[in-house]
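Exercise 7b. Backbone tokens:
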């Protein structure tokens, strides 16, 4: 497995000079009349800028569900996406967009390419970024998949936190790293008691083997828990 650095709802892949985040759901606040205290766009852009400032990547891969609405992209959504892309470019990073199941309107507000998958080379391994809502073609090769889609969270001692899930050889002999949603407006699904069939992603083939990873941005610490099968027995 290549070296990953777990950060605020995103992962840094140093050997690939890249950051990957998933499930921004730009426009969710507008669609559901939710008001985030500092504003949805400001929150997404501010946290993205912090990641860019700290790690100075050459690329930022957005792993699907960049948009929230299926059928309409408003002017506000267009401007919010432009603001995120500008934040990347201002920091010298190239934004790369991977399509998710919410992104039917993405070509309407994005004039660059929209990928079904995007491959990174890291430590001699092929890391493929996908959204995670559908299986890749049988001939696609990867040593590790980085996906989103399920918005995983975990409850520890009564506190619910966004988490990453890592599964060795989880899909077609490839490792899988599932990211939490980058937007803080999505409540997420609590994975503590979830079995394989409870996940919406075909990349999860053995839920008991998934190892939760929680980043505490305030403490600057990353905590890795036992695989879900063993973790459930500890609760």
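Sequence design result:
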């Amino acid at each position: 497995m290549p070296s990953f650095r777990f950060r605020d709802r995103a992962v840094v892949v140093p050997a690939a000079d890249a950051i990957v985040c998933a499930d921004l759901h730009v426009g969710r606040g507008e669609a559901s009349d939710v008001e985030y205290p500092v504003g949805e766009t400001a929150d997404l852009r501010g946290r993205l800028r912090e990641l860019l400032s700290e790690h100075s990547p050459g690329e930022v891969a957005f792993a699907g569900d960049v948009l929230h609405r299926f059928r309409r992209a408003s002017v506000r959504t267009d401007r919010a996406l432009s603001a995120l892309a500008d934040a990347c470019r201002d920091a010298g990073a190239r934004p790369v967009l991977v399509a998710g199941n919410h992104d039917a309107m993405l070509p309407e507000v994005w004039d660059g390419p929209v990928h079904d998958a995007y491959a990174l080379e890291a430590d001699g391994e092929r890391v493929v970024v996908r959204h995670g809502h559908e299986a890749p073609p049988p001939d696609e090769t990867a040593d590790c998949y980085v996906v989103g889609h399920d918005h995983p969270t975990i409850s520890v001692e009564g506190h619910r936190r966004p988490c990453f899930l890592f599964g060795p050889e989880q899909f077609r002999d490839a490792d899988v790293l599932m990211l939490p949603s980058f937007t803080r407006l999505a409540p997420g699904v609590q994975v503590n008691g979830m079995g394989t069939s409870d996940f919406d992603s075909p990349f999860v083939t053995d839920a008991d083997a998934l190892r939760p990873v929680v980043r505490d941005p305030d403490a600057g610490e990353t905590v890795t828990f036992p695989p879900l099968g063993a973790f459930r027995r500890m609760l």
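Instructor comment: Helices lie at 28-32, 40-55, 75-90, 106-109, 228-234. The longest strand covers residues 164-171.
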